[in-house]
Amino acid sequence: MRILVIAMAAASLALNVSGFIDDTRIVRWNTLSGQKTQLVGHRGEKAFMPEHTRASYWQAALEGADYIEPDLGLSKDGHLVVNHNEWLGGNTNVASIPELAHLRTNKTWTDGGKSKTVTNEWFIADMTLAQIKMVRVNQADFKFRPQHFNGMFDVLTFEEYLQIMRNVTIDLGRSFGVIPELKSPKLYNVGRSYPRYYEDRAILTMRHYGWTKISKQIDSSQHTDLRLAPLRPLDGACLGPSVWQSFDQDTAAYLSRHTFTPVVALNQDLPWFFTPKGLDRVSKYAQVISPWKDFFVTGAEAYYKANNITWDAKEIAQMGGFIKPENLAKEIHRRGMTISPYTFYDSHQDMSYLCTKGVKPDSKSGFCPKDKRDEFFYFFAQGMDFMFVENIEEANVLRILYTNELERDQWRI
């Protein structure tokens, strides 16, 4: 509650005439560019709206997100759709639709180097777009999240998301970044006409909407059925930047080779990733590293021990050993990569750090965040270039407050 009160008071003072928060004072941040940390609206603005819906994306834009994130899947009939999970249960009404009951099944696949099994679910890969469009999205069942908009919105296609992003750019007069995550390529490429069908489908769609250019030939002959809508004229507006994301390192490397769009390498389950030679390897195809945030607090070794994830001790030693959490940001920046940890929740939620559950951090300081302000200021000071956030308004206000502190420190105000 204290953070919310501070947020409301600070925001009322910091809004400029265009309605966006103004924190453009010249101060030097610890990011690779020296500019302020960019805020990525995680699944849009899921703190208030059902995630990955039109309302969620519009609210993220109105609250001043710098990037707005969709998660991608691929329907049985080849349509890219937006949903966090590879299945539709949980945050939708799919279980209440009799016509879809026969599609409930089990699946096992590999995602980001980890085997994944999900049972008794409705999988996007097994459904046509017409079937998916029967489903309505609900807010996650947390008592502190508004439930007023449940059932109002359908599951979007990637094309509809990109249309929304062009619309908010034109209508609000501000550029927003797009940052699609390609979920589970090894699942979605099964049964397709060639092994990179899913990735190329996403590339061609992004290119049509103006957010990527192809740098190496792809097999567009397999996508002659792709019918993309005419573009709304930009009328002088400028599209924001774009970035790809994937937990699948092969897919991340493929996207890097075949487009001019930077790539985010997501990871939390591959131990080699958090060694000096691991970062060297990733830097050959990724421009951005995106780990689970606890790797900057508790650290890799403590994280993997606490989660019963084993590693080859000899391999890790040969790759330089696990990087300590207080050094991880510096090591990533030293290789010319930027950083985008996930996920920074609404202040009503538990922050989900292992150190709050009794796990001792690997760092010398033993830092463990006490509240959202403590958490954000620590990550700002570490030099995070991007942060995946929920409750973007809170995050924006904390960024203003941190900017004020930097200004006082750097200009001795």
Describe this structure in words.
- By secondary structure, the protein is of the alpha/beta class.
- It has a single domain (2-73, 156-411), classed as TIM Barrel.
- It is built from 13 helices and 15 strands.
- It has helices at 2-14, 54-62, 129-132, 158-172, 185-188, 197-208, 249-258, 276-282, 300-306, 313-318, 325-334, 372-382, 392-411; strands at 38-41, 67-68, 71-74, 80-82, 104-111, 114-122, 136-137, 153-154, 177-178, 181-182, 244-246, 263-267, 288-291, 338-339, 386-389.
- It has a four-stranded parallel β-sheet, with helices on one face.
Taking all Cα atoms into account, the compactness measure Rg is 21 Å
What count of helical segments does DSSP give? 13
Mind telling me the CATH superfamily name? Answer: Phosphatidylinositol (PI) phosphodiesterase
Helix percent reads: 25-40%
DSSP strand content: 5-15%
Cross-sheet strand order for the largest sheet: 9-2-1-15
CATH A-level architecture: Alpha-Beta Barrel
What is the distance, rounded to the nearest whole angstrom, between the alpha carbons of the first and last residues? 29 Å
The CATH topology name reads TIM Barrel
- What's the number of domains? 1
**Inertia-based shape:** globular
CATH top level label: Alpha Beta
What is the helix/strand order?
Answer: HEHEEEEEHEEHEEHHEHEHEHHHEHEH
Number of strands: 15
| Low-confidence blocks of residues | 1-23
**Integer average pLDDT:** 93
Protein name: glycerophosphodiester phosphodiesterase
InterPro entries: GP_PDE_dom, PLC-like_Pdiesterase_TIM-brl
Organism: Coemansia spiralis
Signal peptide: 1-19
